[in-house]
């Protein structure tokens, strides 16, 4: 019951924050320009048609009435309409949810792999401080830290092109960088075969996953190393050693769980930023996710799509932080939810 109350209290705090964030974002987005600017300059569009379209999008109202109209519709499941092409209108919800599903597939895999590998490397570097393992891990982390993600993505894509060229010389299809992900269906498996399907799916995931994972891994490994070193110098760890406990038991029973708390915080923050900022990776590898949707919405000054994008990303950050708060009580018994 205490856990349920805690979750409800956190959600109650998050709702006003989301509302204030959406209001400020709506005002700033509305002040950037007219979404129908190009259409108004189109000589083929009549004034009546433009006025009807403006009324349908709510652009004939003030900013504050437009916000509350948008909010009321959003809370009832109507995310509004966007200008898809020219004067064609399209519902926002399917566009945003489809893009979110694509980005989520990419980010979840990359972040989980980066977290697992980063924790393992960070613990080894801390336990073997000033050893060759520590020096290699530190050098690799700083190297990845100093490389922008677009540099990592372009380098991986360059080598992928060469590998695909070698594979094509053998009479096979490309194994890396396929531009889209297919869904499993009996017809596709019969046509392409299980091997080709797995190869194309892995090829589509591998390069963008490695690009995001490389940067996140550097952060997780450094945080885990620093946190592990700090915990291992704590009084209760020294007491456990003085009692004659085995080194492995001291590390994993007493130090490891508490050392995960800073990394848990970093993961919750990093997950939201990566989810919202995968624009470069999606552009380089031709993924049509949240990054691509954001660029298109900003380019067209599409208020409805931008607001749908914002609410989805903000809600994801709230959920990630809520999960992190719950993990604190599991990792450290001194932290109680109540």
In CATH, the homologous superfamily of the domain at 94-149 and 220-331 goes by the name MetI-like
Task: Kindly report how far apart the N and C termini lie.
Answer: 9 Å
Helix content: over 70%
What shape does the CA trace take?
Answer: flat
Number of helices: 14
Broad structural category: mainly alpha
Average pLDDT works out at 78
Major pleated sheet: 2 strands, antiparallel
* Strand-residue proportion: under 5%
Layout: helices, strands, pairs:
Blueprint: H1 2-30, H2 37-40, H3 47-56, H4 63-75, E1 81-83, E2 89-91, H5 92-127, H6 132-146, H7 149-169, H8 186-192, H9 194-232, H10 235-242, H11 247-276, H12 279-284, H13 290-300, H14 303-331
Helix pairs in contact: 1-14, 5-6, 5-9, 5-11, 5-13, 5-14, 6-9, 7-9, 8-9, 9-11, 10-11, 11-14, 13-14
Overall description:
This protein has a two-stranded antiparallel ribbon with strand order 1-2. With 338 residues, it is mainly alpha-helical. α10 (235-242) packs antiparallel against α11. It is built from 14 helices and 2 strands, in the order ααααββαααααααααα. The chain has a domain at 94-149 and 220-331: MetI-like (MetI-like fold), CATH 1.10.3720.
């Amino acid at each position: 019951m205490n856990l349920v109350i805690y979750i409800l209290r956190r959600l109650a705090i998050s709702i006003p924050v989301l509302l204030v964030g959406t209001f400020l974002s709506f005002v700033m987005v509305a002040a950037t320009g007219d979404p129908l600017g190009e259409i108004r300059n189109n000589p083929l569009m009549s004034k009546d048609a433009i006025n009807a379209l403006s009324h349908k999008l709510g652009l004939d109202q003030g900013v504050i009435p437009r916000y509350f109209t948008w909010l009321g519709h959003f809370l009832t499941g109507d995310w509004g309409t966007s200008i898809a092409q020219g004067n064609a209108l399209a519902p926002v919800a399917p566009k945003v949810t489809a893009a979110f599903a694509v980005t989520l597939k990419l980010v979840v895999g990359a972040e989980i792999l980066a977290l697992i590998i980063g924790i393992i490397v960070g613990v080894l570097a801390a336990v073997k401080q000033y050893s060759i393992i520590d020096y290699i891990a530190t050098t690799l982390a700083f190297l990845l830290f100093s490389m922008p993600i677009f540099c990592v993505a372009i380098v991986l894509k360059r080598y992928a092109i060469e590998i695909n060229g070698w594979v094509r010389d053998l009479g096979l299809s490309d194994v890396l960088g396929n531009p889209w992900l297919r869904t499993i269906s009996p017809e596709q498996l019969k046509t392409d075969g299980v091997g080709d399907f797995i190869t194309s799916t892995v090829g589509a995931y591998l390069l963008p996953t490695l690009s995001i994972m490389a940067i996140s891994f550097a952060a997780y490994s450094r945080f885990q190393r620093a946190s592990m070193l700090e915990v291992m110098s704590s009084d209760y760890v020294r007491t456990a050693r003085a009692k004659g406990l085995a080194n492995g038991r001291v590390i994993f029973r007493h130090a490891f769980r508490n050392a995960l708390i800073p990394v848990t915080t970093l993961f919750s923050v990093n997950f939201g930023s990566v989810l919202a900022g995968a624009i470069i990776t999606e552009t380089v590898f031709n993924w049509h996710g949240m990054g691509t949707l954001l660029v298109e919405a900003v380019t067209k000054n599409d208020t409805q799509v931008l607001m749908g994008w914002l609410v989805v990303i903000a809600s994801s950050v709230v959920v990630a932080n809520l999960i992190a708060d719950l993990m604190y009580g599991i990792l450290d018994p001194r932290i109680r939810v109540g």
